[in-house]
Amino acid sequence: MAATKKPAPKKPAASKTKPAAKKKTNRTFGEKVKWFFIKLFLWFFGLSIGSVIFFKYVPVPFTPLMLIRAIENKMAGKEVYFDHDWEPIDKISMNLQKAVIASEDGTFLYHNGFDFKALQKAYKSNERGRRIRGGSTISQQTAKNVFLWQGKSYFRKGLEAYFTVLIEIIWGKERIMEVYLNSIEMGDGVYGAYAATEHWYRRDASSLTQMQAAGIAAILPNPRKFKATGSSSYINRRKERIVREMRAVGKINYNAK
């Protein structure tokens, strides 16, 4: 009798059920706001650090103050005058470098961006109702001129402190001085050492005498009001004091710290 073949066992039918779909996570409004500010801060830090690194090597062509002054003159119906040319620091008179240290920031070569003693003196002076004093260092002024706008709000001051720390770390003292002397306002529509020496003395920025350099430094508190030549008695007294203090500055060593 022939053996009968057993039927092959049936394979289990493939399951037709689809894998469970992932649930969409719906962020709350608060979470969206949180992530927005996180991204905003990351973009800000990235752009700010990137711009400071960029201007460590590239001349600063324009500053917010230059734009603000041009708008102010335009709205006042005045001629929009603008004179600015970049000059490497090795072509800027050492007399001018000493003069701005003597007049604006005597401890520039040694501090880390902030002169806390000067800030304390300025605070006490302002508290007593005397003439407003800023106490800002050359580093702080450079950070403000290049990256920010004019103003006295705590928010802007906070940003100024942030950029001051960045340029102290990334640029160093010599680059800070170079950018400062090329971007600061030194007359009405006159920016930087090259334009200032041409405007006030009709000479090259590398050939300033002590008194001429002191003349430019003396008007920095208000360069649109004061004159470096044909000066008032107040500016002449400032010039003489700056020349005396320039001697105390001595030889400049930007790696003094």
Automatic annotation (TrEMBL):
<protein>
    <recommendedName>
        <fullName>Biosynthetic peptidoglycan transglycosylase</fullName>
        <ecNumber>2.4.99.28</ecNumber>
    </recommendedName>
</protein>
<comment type="pathway">
    <text>Cell wall biogenesis; peptidoglycan biosynthesis.</text>
</comment>
<dbReference type="GO" id="GO:0071555">
    <property type="term" value="P:cell wall organization"/>
</dbReference>
<keyword id="KW-0808">Transferase</keyword>
<comment type="function">
    <text>Peptidoglycan polymerase that catalyzes glycan chain elongation from lipid-linked precursors.</text>
</comment>
<dbReference type="GO" id="GO:0016763">
    <property type="term" value="F:pentosyltransferase activity"/>
</dbReference>
<keyword id="KW-0812">Transmembrane</keyword>
<keyword id="KW-0328">Glycosyltransferase</keyword>
<dbReference type="Pfam" id="PF00912">
    <property type="entry name" value="Transgly"/>
</dbReference>
<dbReference type="InterPro" id="IPR001264">
    <property type="entry name" value="Glyco_trans_51"/>
</dbReference>
<feature type="compositionally biased region" description="Low complexity">
    <location>
        <begin position="1"/>
        <end position="18"/>
    </location>
</feature>
<dbReference type="InterPro" id="IPR036950">
    <property type="entry name" value="PBP_transglycosylase"/>
</dbReference>
<keyword id="KW-1003">Cell membrane</keyword>
<keyword id="KW-0133">Cell shape</keyword>
<feature type="region of interest" description="Disordered">
    <location>
        <begin position="1"/>
        <end position="25"/>
    </location>
</feature>
<keyword id="KW-0573">Peptidoglycan synthesis</keyword>
<dbReference type="GO" id="GO:0009252">
    <property type="term" value="P:peptidoglycan biosynthetic process"/>
</dbReference>
<keyword id="KW-0472">Membrane</keyword>
<comment type="similarity">
    <text>Belongs to the glycosyltransferase 51 family.</text>
</comment>
<keyword id="KW-0961">Cell wall biogenesis/degradation</keyword>
<dbReference type="GO" id="GO:0008360">
    <property type="term" value="P:regulation of cell shape"/>
</dbReference>
<keyword id="KW-1133">Transmembrane helix</keyword>
<dbReference type="GO" id="GO:0008955">
    <property type="term" value="F:peptidoglycan glycosyltransferase activity"/>
</dbReference>
<feature type="domain" description="Glycosyl transferase family 51">
    <location>
        <begin position="82"/>
        <end position="246"/>
    </location>
</feature>
<keyword id="KW-0997">Cell inner membrane</keyword>
<feature type="transmembrane region" description="Helical">
    <location>
        <begin position="36"/>
        <end position="58"/>
    </location>
</feature>
<dbReference type="GO" id="GO:0005886">
    <property type="term" value="C:plasma membrane"/>
</dbReference>
<dbReference type="InterPro" id="IPR011812">
    <property type="entry name" value="Pep_trsgly"/>
</dbReference>
<dbReference type="GO" id="GO:0009274">
    <property type="term" value="C:peptidoglycan-based cell wall"/>
</dbReference>
<dbReference type="InterPro" id="IPR023346">
    <property type="entry name" value="Lysozyme-like_dom_sf"/>
</dbReference>
